Amino acid sequence: MKEKTYIEADGREGTPVGIEDLKFDDRGLIPAIVQDADTKQVLTLAYMNAESLRRTLAIGQTVFWSRSRQEYWHKGETSGNFQHVTRIIADCDRDALVVLVHPDGPACHLGTVSCFNYPVREEETK
Q1: Cα distance between residue 113 and residue 60, in whole Å
Q2: Would you say 21 is a known binding-site residue?
Q3: Beta-carbon neighbour count of residue 103 at 10 Å?
């Protein structure tokens, strides 16, 4: 991915949306849904701040903000399972992102392709 300073806006293909146009929450974060660019499988949900988004755009690999560790998290830095970004799309409200990637391996820290593996029951457990 070439370095970009904009995000594509959903609904208006190719219309540039600057990082400054995104709506970060009161903690300075925006949810980023990471999706396999080929299969369209949802891999994970993570959070970015403006700086992690800048880093992602600069290096072409996902960089998130870890809410639990309070630090930048370059996906793959320790596991080798990098996510190579092909496209980033902002939603209509500009308060969420879809990040399309070519993953080098599993997205989940449990070793599964996706972090989404647990169907929700139809009835409540008593």
Answers
A1: 20
A2: no
A3: 23
pTM: 0.87
What would the pLDDT profile of 25-81 be if each residue is shown by its tens digit? Answer: 999 999 999 999 999 999 999 999 999 999 999 999 999 999 999 999 999 999 999
36 is known to lie in a ligand binding site:
no
Q: How far is CA 2 from the centre of its chain?
A: 17
Residue pair 34/40 in contact by the 8 Å Cβ criterion? no
25 assigned ligand-binding residue: no
Q: Which residues pair with 66 in a beta bridge?
A: 71
Name the CATH code of domain 39-117 (choices 2.40.280.10, 3.20.110.20, 2.60.40.2550, 3.10.20.810).
3.10.20.810
Copy the structure tokens of residue 75: 């996906």
Residue type, 29: L
For 114-125, give the DSSP string: -S---PPPSS--
Has 93 been labeled as part of a binding site?
yes
